[in-house]
Amino acid sequence: MNLYHLRYFVTLAHLEHYTKAAQVLSITQPSLSHAIASLEEELGIRLFEKDGRNIVLTKYGQAFLLDVEHALSLLDSSINRLQLTAKGEGNIDIAFLRTLGTSLIPNFIRGFSNLYPDKNIHFSLHTDTGLSADILDGIKTKKYDVAFCSFLENEPLIEFTPIAKQEIVLAVPKDHPLASKDSIHLEETLQYPHIMFKPKSGLRLVVDNLFKQLKQYPDTIAYEVEEDQVAAGLVSQGFGIAVIPYMNILSMMDLKLIQISSPTWERKFYMATLKNTYQPPAIQNFCEYVKSKSVENLRL
């Protein structure tokens, strides 16, 4: 079905006059008459009938008009969105770990927006999961355009770019036997119950690697959680101790933070995108902006 014929049909339906409609459409009246006749022949039903010198829609033409206008509106809206996207505007879906939402992600968005003040760019922010593995699944299914999470091994479809790093510390309740220390060797913590991250968490890999260096593991795992804020909350209530990344919010909680002298480790955060897939200009520009930020200047 010819799209132009549908647009001719809508114009004629509103003006109810072939000559006027042809003038508005900048075509000849015979061309308009032929287009409508072709449309009616294809549909197998009359859309218009005479009413004096004018024409009016038949009952079936009225019903068809509603559907055609709705379909053309959707099509025009989609075309407009794609044209804006091609010009470097549009929507960017970003997924990130919640710990990055207090400063890092807002800073990226603000800095990028300041570079393109005349562009209509909207960011859709997703924090509906606390696990890097789930976030990366969203990247692979194209639910998200860009993600900020931990690095996971065996992800050949994902391009990881380091964008920030975070120190790992030991969090203990303020009345804990270790609370008097300002620095500690991780081996000293093995006898105490630990709050650990769930196996799918990128943080679990970090913490496990620390204990692998000791060739020992804590005697007791009190809880396994998904997020570092939850781990800190359990520590503050005396449910155990936890090896967690440093966050500013920890200084406001009822717990003691102890520097880990050995083994040492820094948690790194990465920007994750799908390899070998088309990215429109707005997303390409945003990714390049993030990459331009030095990781040394992005310590959390």
From TrEMBL:
One of its GO terms (cellular component) is cytosol. The keyword Membrane does not apply. SUPFAM superfamilies: Periplasmic binding protein-like II, Winged helix' DNA-binding domain. Keywords: DNA-binding, Transcription, Transcription regulation. This is LysR family transcriptional regulator. InterPro entries: HTH-type_LysR_regulators, LysR_HTH_N, LysR_subst-bd, WH-like_DNA-bd_sf, WH_DNA-bd_sf. Pfam families: HTH_1, LysR_substrate. It comes from the Bacteria. The keyword Transcription applies. Residues 1-58 form the HTH lysR-type domain. GO terms for molecular function: DNA binding; DNA-binding transcription factor activity. Transmembrane segments: none annotated. Belongs to the LysR transcriptional regulatory family. Signal peptide: none annotated. It comes from Candidatus Scybalomonas excrementavium.
